[in-house]
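Translate structure to sequence.
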C-alpha cells in the first residue's frame, strides 16, 4: 500500500517559481512607474514589492516615490504596466521552468492537489497558462489570483483561497512555495506546514534564507523529493 503524501496541497507561485518569464513582469512594472514619476525606481524599492499584487505594488511604489497614490494614478500605472507586459510576453512567451511540468504531474500522481496562486490578475495569469499550454483541471487543480482576494501577499489570503479551491481544510497539510520574501511570508502567515523558497526567481539564497522557511530548493522541479 502506498503511504499518504506528507501534504495534500501544493500552493505554488507563478513567475519565478513555476513560470520562466525572464523578469519581464518587474521590468514592465519598473518602466511603468518610472515613466509616471519621471525618474528611475531604485532597485531596492522595487524589490520590496516582488511577490505582491501588481496593482498593490503600483500603489506602494507611487506612495514611496511621491508620497501619494491617487486611484487615477494607480490606474494609469497599472494600465501601462499591463500593456508593457503583454507586449513583452507576445515577443517572448513565458514557459514552464525546466522540470516543473513533470514535478507537478508527479505531485498530482501522488495524490497532492496543485493550485497556482499569484500576484497577477486573472486575465494575465490565464494568458500565461494559455501560452504554456497549461490548463486548470488538466495540468493543475486550480488558480487563485490577486484580484480575487482582499489583500495579496504577505497576507495569507491567496493561500487560504488555494485551500478552498483544493478542498483542503488543515494548514498542517499544505505546502507553499515561492521565490520572494513575500511568498514565504504569506506561507508563514497562513501557518503552512511547509514553506519552500526556490532559487529560480527574484531572490538569491542569501536573502531568501533570512526569511521564515522550512526548505530552500534549487527549483520547484525538486518538490517531489519532499514526498
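Result:
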Amino acid at each position: 500500500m502506498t503511504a499518504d503524501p506528507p501534504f495534500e496541497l501544493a500552493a505554488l507561485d507563478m513567475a519565478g517559481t513555476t513560470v520562466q518569464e525572464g523578469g519581464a513582469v518587474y521590468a514592465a512594472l519598473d518602466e511603468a512607474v518610472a515613466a509616471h514619476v519621471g525618474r528611475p525606481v531604485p532597485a531596492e524599492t522595487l524589490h520590496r514589492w516582488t511577490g505582491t499584487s501588481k496593482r498593490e505594488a503600483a500603489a506602494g511604489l507611487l506612495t514611496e516615490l511621491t508620497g501619494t497614490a491617487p486611484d487615477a494614478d494607480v490606474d494609469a500605472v497599472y494600465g501601462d504596466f499591463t500593456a508593457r507586459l503583454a507586449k513583452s510576453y507576445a515577443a517572448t512567451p513565458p514557459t514552464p521552468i525546466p522540470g516543473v511540468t513533470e514535478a507537478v504531474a508527479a505531485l498530482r500522481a501522488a495524490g497532492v492537489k496543485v493550485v497556482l496562486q499569484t500576484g497577477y490578475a486573472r486575465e494575465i495569469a490565464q494568458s500565461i497558462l494559455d501560452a504554456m499550454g497549461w490548463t486548470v483541471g488538466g495540468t493543475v487543480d486550480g488558480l487563485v489570483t490577486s484580484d480575487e482576494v482582499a489583500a495579496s501577499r504577505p497576507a495569507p489570503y491567496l493561500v487560504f483561497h488555494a485551500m478552498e479551491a483544493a478542498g483542503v481544510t488543515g494548514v498542517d497539510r499544505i505546502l507553499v512555495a515561492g521565490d520572494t520574501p513575500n511568498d514565504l511570508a504569506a506561507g508563514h502567515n497562513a501557518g503552512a506546514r511547509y514553506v519552500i523558497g526556490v532559487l529560480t526567481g527574484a531572490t538569491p539564497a542569501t536573502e531568501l534564507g533570512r526569511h521564515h522557511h522550512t526548505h530552500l530548493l534549487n527549483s520547484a522541479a525538486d518538490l517531489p523529493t519532499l514526498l
